[in-house]
# Entry
Amino acid sequence: MTGPELKPPLEHAHQSPPECIRSLHKHYQKTPVESLDSDPRVLDFTNLSELHRNRLHVVGKLGGSCLQKIFDTFEAGEASVDGGQNIEIERASLSREIEGWKDNDRLIYEHALLPGLQFVPSLLPFSSQKALLSRLWMRDLSNPLHKTNLHLHYHIPYPNCETSSFFGYDDPEKVLLPSKDPATHKPLTVAQMLGKRLRWMTLGGQYDWTRKVYPEMDTTEARDLVPFPHDTATLIHSIFPNLNPQAAISNLYTPGDSLSPHRDISEASSAPLASISIGTDAIFIIGLSKGSPVANEEEERILVVRIKSGDVILMGGESRWAWHSVPKIVPTNVGAKYNPLDEWPGPEDGVNKLWAGWMNNRRVNLNVRQMWD
# Structure
């Protein structure tokens, strides 16, 4: 169950995470990646341990033929999809097939530990992942309406018509991001920006990271002005009709990076969050602590999940307000299988050859939210 009655008050957005979440986060930050495959606590859908096998249940499926139509439309760059995805619901144990399940269908799983937290492994095919990368980092990053972590301290030199994206500059070492305060920050080059300094980009409603609030837009007219990319919103809403994408953050990770424990409670809506992963594997921690007012917990309920490219997690029900973090990014050359996206972008993408294979050892997470009901 989810709803306003379970939502923590907005002033709790500044609260520190509970010790059980913090300690587990630190533990997996220090855990060698070589030991992850044999760690029974890690929920890995390609290597299920007995601890999880009997606690996972299939709660629905996404029809493969309808999904393929949605993906084809998105990849072709068309503006809309004809009709949403109807999710067929039937509860079943992991060891039993859902009646009528076909090989190209995608199953939706829930874990008994956190009802409402849904997993759709390998939902996005590589072709759609590549298309989404191009929309995010070649198109949306080049749109001044979408802000990044660099906007606070730097002036951004947006590409012109001849240079369609930041990846297209002939000599990115010579294109500067001037500092807004030269006494505090030195200017950056576009090469530095794309190399490591770019950490996130927001889409749609622009979140205030200091105050932890969204812009105060209460009228329908104001909401229509929020520039969430229509094709990406349609892709997500067509698959998950109970989520109307209005805001998102796209995070960039490389090995050694992490995301500290936090909760997403600033949205007025109780609609679920969708988390889409592309690139190298990551460890994801999510849970409710003992005594949590969200679900009147009597004991800790925490999951540790290995997320792979194309996986989608839907945080609904009790998990909508849960603490979560990313303590570790798994390097491509340690434990993770070959990912065709390691070669993105390629020569066919029309970018400077300097950026060929930019996604190698990178992870992109697109976290999509609904701000208002």
